[in-house]
Structures are given as C-alpha cells and as structure tokens.
Design goal:
mainly alpha, two-stranded antiparallel ribbon, transit peptide, 55% helix, single chain, two-stranded antiparallel sheet, nucleic acid binding, 31 helices, 4 strands, transcription
Length: 611
C-alpha cells in the first residue's frame, strides 16, 4: 500500500495491505525506517516512523539493491573562484595600463576606477576623445574621463549639447574647460540646469552661447551658488528684467560666491563714493567688472590712480565713466602715459591727474595715436602751449577721428571766419558733428547777423538753440564750458600690442552712424558721475540741473537720471529734483515713468506735478 508523504512531493510510505499476511505493528513496535521512493530520482531515501521491524524475507531492502550514483560531470558554465576572478581582473588592468603608457597617458590616478576589461574598449574611448580634438595632454589633465563609456556617457551628452545649439567646433574647448560633463546624466544633471537658465530670462537662442562661454555652469547646484548670487545682485538694485541680459553677457556671475566675491566688491566701490544704486547700474551695463580681482586688480589700480595725481573725491566719477579702468594693468600704462604727456604735451603731474579725471579712457590710448593728434593741432597753427591747454580742457581731442577733425577745422577756417583763439578756448568744437550741428547752426546765426561764442552756439540741445533764436538779445545766457564740456565720442579700450592701425580705427568718430550711440554712453557716464557725487553729504548740487540737462540733451540713459532724481528726493532737495524731472519731461520721457509701478518713480512724478 502506498501513502503520500506531506512536504515530499512524489514521496510515499509503503505499508503492507491490511489483508496481507504482513501485519502492521506500528503502534506497538519501535521506530524503524521505511524507504521513501521518489519517481524523479533513481535512489531512495528512508523515513522514520513507528512500526515493528519487518522480516527481511517479507520486505526486501531497497538500499541494498540500489546502485551508487555516478559522479556528476563538471558544468561548462561553472563560475570560477573569487581568487581566480581577482587574478584575471588584475591581469586585464595591467594590459590596459600598458596600453595607456604606450600612448604616454599616465594611469596613476585610475586606481579604483572601473575600467574596460579589454584593451580594445579602452582604445575605442581614446580614439573617440581624439576625434573630439582632445590631446594626450588634455587626457592627462583629467584622466578620469577614460572611465566614461562612449555609448552610455559621451555620445548622449554630446548629442544633447548639440541639440541645444552648442557648436561642434567648440566641443574641444568646452571639454578642456569642463571634462566632467561627460560623467553627467542628461536627464538628472543637465536638463534641470538648462531649465533654470531659461527661468532666468535667458532666451533659448542664447543658451548655447552661455554654455560655450561658461560650461562650468552645468556642474552647479540649483539651490546653491547660482540662486544666491542672482538674489544678491537683485537685492542691491539690479533690475530683475535685466538679469537675463546680464547672465547672457557674463554668466560667470552664477559661479561667484556672494560672501567672498560679489559683496566685498560692491562694498569697496561704495567706500570709494559710489552709491549702491550706481553700482547696480554699472553691473547692468558692464557685468564683467564683477570678475575683476578685488585684491590683485581693483585695489592696486585705485592706489595707482591716487599716486598719479587723481583726487580721492574723483575716484567714483572715474569708475562710473570707465569701469574697466579698475581691471586692467594700470600702473604701467599710467607711467608710460605720464612720461609722454610731460615730454610732448607739457603737462605736469597735477594736470595729468585732471586729464585722467576728465577722460579715464585715455589710459588705453596708444602712443602713436596721441602723437598724431598733437601733430595735427600744431599743424593747424596752434602753439604747443595752447595745445597743452586744449588737451587739459578737453582730453577727448586725443581720441577723435583725424579725418573728421580736418574737415571741421577746414570749415572753421574757411566759412566761420573766427579767430583761432576761440578754438583754443572751446576745443570741444571738434566733438560736434559738422553736418548735423555746426553747419546748420552757423548758417542760422549768419543769416540773422548774431555774434556769439562757439560755446553759446554749440553747447546746447536743438530745442534750447531754437529758444535762443527767439531771444531779442543774447543777454547773459552764456553757460560755463567747464561744467558742460562733454565729448560725443564712443571709446573702446585698445592695448598697445594690437597694432597701430587697429588702435586708430577703434577710436574712430563716425559722425552720422555712431553719434547717437556715443551720446548714450557719454550721457550715462555724466549722470553716473553726478550720482556718485551725491555720496558726499556736504557736496553742492548747483550742477545737478546742468548735469540732468546734459543727460537729456544727449539722449542718454534716463534710468540713471531718474536714480539721481530719486536720491535728491530722498534728501529733500526738491528744487534740484524738480529741475531735473522737468528737464527729462521736456524730451518726452516722463510718460514712461508715469506708467511705472515703481513707488520711487511715482513719488518723483507726484512731486513734479505739484510743482
């Protein structure tokens, strides 16, 4: 009889049939073992139960009749021992290391890095990096790049950058600056950074240029340096609407630490007399100034300016006009320029400081450019002593285009019939456009028989000139040329090494096309300088209205003029503030600020309306 055994599939207990002659005495006999048969196996097992031992003749022994199982053959897929695996791994790594050494790649830093098992896979990675333009030296600078798989890491990352618009021609420099990008995950690491940049109002078309300029941004954490740096510059007064443009031009701001870089820089400029609002405007216009090293560039350059005769109270105005002056190799330029002025222009140390204060861009003029302009003025019949006076009064003469200066002088000499001394007294004559300003106004006063100075003729807006033509007599409406003498030229700094022809062309004055652009830059500098002057509590505001009028007449950056008005309003200088607002109102810019949601602008407008 066969009974199934619980927990043993296919296993059974054999008992004699109840009617068999073999009686079941399990309930009264000691335990004995009964064979258990498994149909899936050839051998049998025994099971212990309570039963009387059966006679050998009645229950034959299965164990005695079963043959021993033959030994199992070793499998072809049997895993090697751990020891053998370590030996094989060490041998493969040694072969890969020998291959890298044959290419002059030092594998010392690769210990502990998961490397390809075979030399062929490593050769594929090296060849792919070479195809991207990376050299053996580049790989040695960051050998961990060899741990990146071509198919799993390199190709997906580069494909994503290409889809964003990063040019393939820039991949080499991109990977030299930030090879760690090849370890990145497109979804986890790169996409969130790109979305953050777009959230900062950087246009999608500008994202590739931002990444090409500053690829390290792809490794920053969103909640770390990037967010804090943006929050700080907005907090000091930088317009939130300008953040996208600022980061597009200078994305390095995203990697600057506030406590170590940005805040100390801003506080130092404030200590020189620049209000925080003026610093914010400088950052909007020239965001790269934040990259100037405070200890190794900015402070030494400020010290150099003071050493060469610049007055401490003029530092803010100089930086407002030419922010790059605190970030260039200044001392050597000042030494060379002072020597040139002393020998060829007869300018002493104190006057040299005044020239730098009026036109700080002069530090970037080349020696040949200055000498050509000096020679031209002397060829006009002006004595060297008079040339010195003209340069001191209007140093912008040294940056004008010589061809246009010649045309202006020819007109002055042949048509205007004025004494050369008038030109010496008002050298800014050369900064006005011949066809747009000088000729039309001269013809008007000639028709009416009006006799006036060059300053009265030229140093005013078109609207103001029309008002003057309505006067019965000139009277005493003669404005000071010293306070209003501002050039209308666009400056671009040029180094000596760039060559004389490039230097000359960089300072060209194009009468028709660049005049408005130049006016904006100069007006911005004028208003910034006036804003900087407000840092001193005891300073006088007599020139504020004149500064605002100059800003308006040159059609410059009116946001700076309004910042000036706001500061005046807070200091309760209502008279000067109203004069400034009315000046801006005359050229039609008040409407913009009437519609503004800025409380400061509304306050100024309300004060203007009450007046």
């Amino acid at each position: 009889m066969r009974l199934p055994v619980l927990g043993r599939p296919g296993g059974c207990l054999l008992f004699p049939h109840p009617r068999s002659s073999v009686l079941c005495l399990a309930h009264q006999s000691p335990i004995f073992k009964i064979p258990i048969f498994d149909p899936k196996k050839t051998c049998c097992r025994t099971h212990a139960t309570s039963a009387a031992p059966l006679a050998p003749s009645s229950v034959p022994s299965r164990r005695s009749s079963a043959r021993p199982a033959p030994p199992r053959p070793s499998s072809l897929y049997a895993r090697p021992s751990l020891q053998q695996m370590e030996v094989d791994r060490a041998a493969n790594r040694a072969r890969v290391y020998d291959f890298l050494r044959s290419l002059r790649i030092a594998p010392d830093e690769l210990d502990g890095l998961e490397l390809p098992v075979t030399v062929d896979v490593m050769r594929e990675r090296v060849d792919f990096l070479h195809s991207l333009g990376l050299t053996v030296e580049d790989i040695n600078n960051y050998p961990l790049v060899l741990g990146c798989s071509v198919k799993k890491n390199m190709v997906p990352v580069l494909d994503y950058l290409g889809k964003l618009g990063v040019r393939k021609a820039t991949f080499t420099e991109f990977l030299r600056r930030y090879p760690q990008v090849l370890h990145s995950s497109v979804v986890v690491d790169l996409m969130p950074v790109v979305k953050y940049l777009q959230g900062m109002d950087i246009r999608p078309v500008d994202i590739p240029r931002v990444l090409e300029r500053y690829p390290e941004v792809l490794g920053f954490k969103l909640e770390g340096t990037m967010s804090t740096s943006v929050a700080y510059v907005v907090g000091i007064g930088v317009s939130r609407r300008e953040i996208g443009a600022i980061l597009t031009r200078y994305p390095e701001i995203l990697g600057m630490r506030v406590g170590r870089v940005i805040k100390p820089f801003v506080e130092f400029l404030e200590s020189l007399g620049l209000p925080r609002l003026a610093v914010a405007r400088l950052i909007e216009k020239r965001p790269h100034i934040l990259g100037f090293g405070l200890e190794d560039q900015v402070k030494p350059n400020v010290t150099a300016l003071l050493e060469f005769g610049v007055r401490n109270e003029a530092l803010a105005s100089i930086i407002a006009q030419y922010p790059d002056i605190i970030g260039i190799e200044l001392k050597a330029k000042l030494t060379s320029l002072q020597s040139l002025f002393e020998s060829h222009v007869l300018v002493d140390r104190e006057d040299f400081g005044r020239i730098i204060e009026k036109m700080p861009q002069s530090v970037s003029l080349s020696r040949s450019t200055i000498l050509k302009h000096i020679d031209f003025l002397k060829c006009c019949g002006i004595l060297l002593k008079q040339v010195s006076k003209m340069v001191l009064s209007c140093p912008q003469l040294l940056a004008l285009n010589l061809d246009i200066m010649k045309m202006s002088f020819d007109y002055f000499q042949s048509e205007m019939n004025r004494d050369l001394e008038e030109l010496v007294q008002f050298p800014a004559f050369f900064t006005y456009g011949l066809e747009s300003t000088v000729r039309p106004r001269h013809e008007i006063i000639s028709e009416r028989g009006i006799k006036c100075s060059l300053a009265w003729l030229l140093n005013c807006t078109d609207e103001k000139f029309e008002e003057r033509m309505k006067y019965d007599s000139i009277g005493i409406d003669e404005m000071s040329t010293e306070s209003m003498l501002k050039p209308r030229v666009e400056y671009e700094p040029v180094d000596e090494e760039d060559g004389e022809e490039e230097e000359e062309s960089s300072f060209e004055y194009v009468e028709d096309r660049s005049l408005k652009r130049a006016d904006s830059l100069v007006a911005n500098a004028v208003a910034n300088a006036a804003l900087a002057s407000l840092a001193n509590e005891g300073s006088s505001f007599h020139s504020t209205a004149a500064t605002a009028s100059a800003t308006s007449s040159l059609h410059g950056d009116y946001s700076v003029a309004w910042d000036l008005a706001y500061v005046l309003h807070r200091r309760r200088d209502e008279c000067e503030m109203v004069t400034l607002v009315l000046t801006v109102y005359r050229v039609g810019y008040l409407k913009v600020y009437k519609e503004s949601k800025d409380d400061a602008a509304k306050s100024v407008v309300a004060e203007c309306n009450r007046s």
